[in-house]
Design a protein that fits this description.
Number of domains: 1
Shape: globular
Oligomer: single chain
CATH architecture: Sandwich
CATH class: Mainly Beta
Strand content: 35-45%
Largest sheet: 7 strands, antiparallel
Number of strands: 12
Length: 219
Amino acid sequence: MSSQQRQYEPGDGTPASQDTSACLSYDDHNLYVVFVCRDEPGRIRARMSKQEDIESDDSVAVHLNTFHDHHRAYVLTANPLGIQQDGIWTEGQEQDNSFDALWHSQGRLTGQGFVVLMAIPFRSLRFSGAPLQTWGIALSRSIRRNNERSFWPRITQRIASLAQQFASLEGLEPISPGRNMQFIPYFAASRARRARFPGRCRGACGPRCQIRAARCAHI
């Protein structure tokens, strides 16, 4: 278990009960995130529900502060079967789940837990026109049976601002119509560019989760 994988709740700073790894990559059209979540298959909570109705399920999420203002973030969430929920979180306010973005997700239960793929079109997000982008980013996982939520990077309740604790996603170059993609059988990003993402790939994604030029982190 990585020392970076810490709970936000219920035990602030306590090691997470289950191991999670995440890999990121991008091309001209999309940001890609793959979560590999370890767990006991019979204890995972996941339903084939309608979109947004996943509050009682286990889930993973990516939080994107695209203007890097430490104030506002998109929150894109999926349960272990890929059912989506999306919203906008603003510092000091309740999350606004009326936001509805077009993005893509797939989820699959495995013998060791579950895997979730997210493909987030840049056209579905707002961000500055700078030629070189820097975004705030955080990755999270919720385990409902434990009422547990963990973050990467480590985020603590002892600091009032969540967004100020986000990691920085750097090196996103000009985003424009780009290259072809292929999925085999979970995900592979063909000729994807590399964003400088704090964390190292330790091989946790396994042979079936292949992302060229990706960075990985344990959350």
